[in-house]
Design brief:
The chain is an alpha/beta fold and 596 residues long. It is 38% helix and 8% strand. The chain has a four-stranded parallel beta sheet with strand order 2-1-3-4, sandwiched between helices. A two-stranded antiparallel ribbon has the order 5-6. The chain has a two-stranded antiparallel sheet with strand order 7-8. β3 (158-162), α9 (168-176) and β4 (183-186) form a beta-alpha-beta unit.
Length: 596
């Protein structure tokens, strides 16, 4: 057995010690509910409340039962389907078809499926540069609440959670963790590959030339190019780059919540259909036909300290979105686990970046990553290097071995698994930890209190013009948020204390101040500036909100953002260091330095 990295073990020990009481309380809640329902399905547990049961099953109960007695006392499992599907987001479109597929498979194996709730599904790619960005982060809490609204009927023996993009995956998990039932995540998979980012940027460069010549941009040609880079067409699927959606996929796989070996199985393919059907079989499987519970363990028991740290490790190893630092803290909190940013920072020092796809690599995406060996290869190699916890519980049983295999269809079209390849088939995209793209794939970050935690894509575009067109050396220091594809601008993000409070260090910075951004040691300093004088400066800008946004501001301020609530003060050992200003450097983009 491979010996685990001592730094990982040290972080695990700290998290376990810190979480003793809250984790014990979360598990006690699950055990209490399981004891109450011992030997009974959820329906049987509610049998003495016939009116409630009738309301829950009025629609279509005869599909699975011929008699009321079968509905009441039959041992079939009833599975909730929580769906984030819609026609606006590419990853959500395929999910609209999934409930009928899942219900059919469940009936075939003697179970029943019910769509218990639909959730909101915002996308930063759509809402960027609009007031919709003010509610983007808040939507995670709305999704969690919608999930709770669906599962609160308590007639369910398990749940299938449909969706992953941006805030959806985290919201689904945060909501489902409030219940003592097993749950699995199903996503649409990535869309097929289109033209490369390099080709897309060539079109944008052509537009700049048109503007320089006093002409307007070619809107039709530009839109056609954008469509070619995101060729979802009728099938849909997640974006091909390694943004928040696909970082969610990595984290969910590393926690053992997907069908094994299927993280980046492409949308709209026969294999993706088979994977979706398999999820229904897994969640409703029983050791014995007479059993009244699923073989899959309750979600709260699967998401333990090791699973949470595995998710962090996976996102760091692929160079994923820093948004996951916000989300993993909130997911962990919902499972009674006290994960903190200094834990993520410590892990980032020992996890190498082994994946090189866009935004790092303008010519490769997650489909190329999957073709090179994908998550099964990466997780196995991390485990063999002592950088991944394997003594965990997953939806596929004990241990991570099943997740080191790839799913495929045999000649008869049956879903099968085989070992991940011994070597990466494309070392420009995927490497083992012994030969990484960077010795650390991690990120360090702070802060989450700004209204809506707005995404700063538009600001990045302006900075790129200064960098590329005017040859300025440009960096970004902000208490805002960046995800996905912020490009080549070195960025220190999520800085804390935050200017939104009028007390943050950033609020005192003035034009002309010299700031030193050091990505090697993770510090921001202001050389030659007297610290006492700086601290006595008034805030340069008072936070203001336009009247038409007041309603979204109020809604956000009322929302429970766990990442903010769990932010420790400087005296409690967080990453903020004075007089170094703020130690909050995101370093997970390798050769592009600090893009989130």
């Amino acid at each position: 057995m491979v010996e685990l990295n001592p730094e990982l073990l040290a972080v695990l020990k700290r998290v376990e010690e810190r979480s003793k009481e809250t984790r014990a309380a979360a598990l006690a809640k699950v055990d209490h509910q399981l004891k109450l329902r011992e030997g009974k399905t959820a329906r049987q547990f509610l049998a003495d409340k016939p009116s409630s049961l009738v309301h829950a099953f009025t629609a279509g109960w005869k599909i699975c039962c011929n008699k009321v007695s079968e509905l009441l006392f039959g041992n079939f499992l009833n599975i909730a389907i929580i769906n984030s599907g819609n026609d606006v987001i590419s990853s959500g479109a395929p999910l609209l078809k999934f409930p009928d597929i899942l219900k059919r498979v469940l009936l075939d194996i003697g179970a029943k499926g019910q769509v218990a709730a639909g959730t909101p599904a915002e996308c930063d790619g759509v809402t960027q540069n609009t007031t919709g960005m003010q509610t983007s982060m808040k939507s995670r809490d709305d999704i969690a609440n919608a999930t709770i609204d669906g599962l609160v009927h308590k007639t369910f023996d398990g749940a299938l959670l449909l969706g992953n993009c941006d805030k959806i995956g985290p919201g689904l998990l945060i909501g489902a963790l409030q219940f003592s039932i097993p749950a699995m995540v199903i996503s649409s998979g990535p869309m097929k590959s289109g033209i490369s980012h390099k080709e897309k940027m060539a079109r944008r460069d052509a537009n700049k030339q048109l503007v320089a010549e006093g002409k307007g941009i070619d809107v039709v040609a530009t839109t056609e190019t954008e469509f070619k880079s995101y060729p979802a067409e009728d099938e849909g699927g997640t974006c091909g780059f390694l943004g928040t959606a696909n970082s969610n996929e990595v984290a969910i796989t590393c926690m053992g919540l997907h069908v094994p070996g299927t993280t980046f199985v492409q949308s709209g393919t026969p294999l993706r259909l088979a994977v979706t059907e398999e999820a229904a079989r897994m969640i409703a499987a029983k050791d014995d036909p007479k059993d009244t519970k699923s073989k899959v363990a309750p979600l709260t028991k699967i998401i333990d300290e090791r699973a949470i740290l595995n998710a962090v490790i996976g996102v760091l190893a692929v160079g994923g979105s820093t948004n996951l630092a916000i989300h993993m803290i909130a997911i962990a909190n919902s499972a009674g686990i006290d994960l903190r940013l200094e834990d993520i920072d410590a892990i980032s020092n020992v996890i190498p970046r082994c994946v090189h796809v866009f935004p790092n690599n303008a010519n490769a995406n997650v489909n190329d990553f999957e073709d090179a060996g994908g998550m099964p290869f990466l997780m196995r190699e991390l485990a063999n290097a002592g950088l991944f916890f394997t003594d965990v519980t997953t939806v596929a049983g004990e241990g991570m071995d099943r997740y080191f295999q790839q799913a495929y269809l045999d000649d008869s079209g049956k879903l099968q698994w085989r070992d991940a390849p011994a070597e990466s088939s494309n070392l420009d995209v995927l490497r083992p930890p012994s030969n990484p793209f960077d010795s650390h794939g991690g990120f360090r970050l702070q802060g989450a209190a700004a209204n809506g935690i707005p995404e700063l894509h538009a600001l990045s575009d302006g900075l790129k013009v200064l960098q590329k067109e005017f040859n300025f050396k440009v960096a970004l220091i902000t208490d805002g948020r960046l995800s996905g594809a912020s490009g080549s601008i070195p960025a220190a993000i999520h800085c804390e204390p935050e200017a939104a409070h009028g007390i943050g260090m950033l609020s005192r910075v003035k034009d002309g101040d010299i700031i030193c951004l050091n990505s090697d040691d993770g510090t921001i300093t202001m050389p030659g500036l007297n610290e006492m004088e700086f601290n006595q400066r008034p805030a340069a800008i008072e936070p203001t909100v336009s009247k038409d946004e007041e309603h979204t501001v109020e809604a956000w301020q009322e929302a429970a953002n766990e990442a903010t609530r769990r932010m420790p003060p400087p005296s409690a050992g967080c990453l903020t260091v004075r007089p170094k200003f703020v130690q909050a450097i995101a370093r997970n983009r390798g050769d592009l330095a600090l893009a989130a």
